[in-house]
Specification:
single chain, mainly alpha, DNA polymerase, domain 1, hpI Integrase, Chain A, two-stranded antiparallel sheet, 58% helix
């Protein structure tokens, strides 16, 4: 019994000794940690937040930056590109894991089935979104920057423009007069100014300077909304005498219609429906333009090709690329050169002829042959 009590006493003492040892160890560790914290030699590691996936970042970018800073038409196009082309490629990929090589592979794959301009429309929102991610601190650099070299040369986009010849344009406008006379001023305006469809639809009477014979392009109509022109800036476009006269006649006709319908005021839109409202672009294309093309027996072109027709006809009659740039509203002459440079008439032979020196006489053929023969023998 005494031995049992002794054993219990020893065990209890051992436990107390261990407890005191552990307690002392904790105190010593505590003092060391406090000292390191005081000296700044110890810092708690914060857990880094996980990087967002491409889908997460793209949805956030579209909902905030793109919706607030882009035109409605641009936003709609960007959202479509993200949904159709970018999410299938990168949806679950963490944003920092998207490499330059991955972007190039995507563009090369798209180039096999899409036109160069369509591939560039895929690259544009991706590059802009990743630029925003760099500014956000999510990425160190933009993997979509400077990858346009993998695309087909911009000159290949020339295959996409199909300007009408002067004869084809005359046939089309004559057919419009016969089949849809009310739309003749509208299509003549497109053909004589090179305005985009939405710009012509949004044209108002107050935009026309009758004395200066020009029109101020200030608006664009797209996706049911009035916006600014494509490059965000207005421009002045010259009016031909024929177009000016047709628009004058249309203005007189519109005043008569206003009185006949009992409208409180004349519609502000130069080209409008019978109710005085903006024309529907889809109806203009399908019910008028394509129908008149078919009736005239002409090849199928887009309504936008009237803009290209305008530029090509100006080039054929010797107008400068700089003038055409200003008329079309391109942001730089390089855009004009890229699109229409191949249409510029052949080199100016009169210019190179002026390089000739009258003091240098061409040798007659026989003299030249003898001279060449002598030179050959001497060698």
């Amino acid at each position: 019994m005494a031995n049992g009590m002794c054993s219990l006493t020893i065990k209890a003492g051992a436990r107390q000794s261990v407890s005191e040892t552990a307690s002392g160890l904790q105190r010593r560790l505590k003092r060391k940690l406090e000292a390191k914290l005081t000296l700044g030699e110890f810092a708690l590691q914060e857990e880094k937040p996980s990087a967002p996936t491409f889908r997460q970042y793209a949805e956030e970018w579209l909902a905030t930056y793109a919706r607030l800073n882009c035109k409605p038409s641009t936003y709609t196009r960007y959202a479509g590109v993200v949904r159709t082309h970018l999410l299938p490629a990168f949806a679950t990929t963490p944003l920092p894991d998207i490499t330059r090589e991955a972007v190039k592979r995507l563009l090369l794959a798209k180039r096999d089935t899409l036109t160069p301009s369509s591939v560039r429309q895929i690259l544009a929102p991706l590059r802009e979104m990743l630029n925003y991610a760099v500014e956000d601190g999510v990425l160190a650099s933009n993997p979509a920057a400077r990858v346009s070299r993998v695309l087909a040369p911009r000159r290949s986009a020339l295959l996409e423009i199909q300007p009408l010849t002067r004869e084809e344009l005359t046939l089309l406008l004559t057919t419009v007069q016969q089949e849809a006379l009310a739309y003749y001023p509208f299509f003549l305006c497109l053909a004589r100014t090179g305005m985009r469809l939405g710009e012509a639809l949004a044209l108002q009477w107050g935009d026309i300077d009758w004395h200066g014979r020009f029109v101020d392009v200030r608006r664009n109509y797209t996706l049911g909304k009035i916006t600014s022109p494509k490059n965000g800036k207005g421009r002045r476009v010259d009016l031909s005498q024929q177009l000016t006269e047709v628009l004058r006649q249309l203005l007189t006709q519109r005043k008569v219609e206003t009185l006949r319908h009992g409208w409180p005021e004349m519609p502000v839109w130069v080209f409008c429906s019978r109710a005085g409202r903006l024309l529907d672009p889809d109806n203009v294309r399908s019910r008028v333009f394509y129908r008149c093309l078919a009736k005239a027996g002409l090849r199928h072109v887009r309504i936008h090709d009237l803009r290209h027709t305008y530029a090509s006809l100006l080039l054929q009659q010797g107008e400068s690329l700089a003038y055409i740039r200003d008329q079309l509203g391109h942001h730089s002459i390089q855009v004009t050169v890229d699109i229409y440079g191949h249409l510029v008439p052949g080199g100016n032979k009169a210019a190179v002829d002026r390089l000739d020196d009258a003091l240098i006489c061409n040798l007659p053929a026989t003299a030249r042959q003898n001279h060449e023969r002598q030179g050959h023998l001497s060698t």
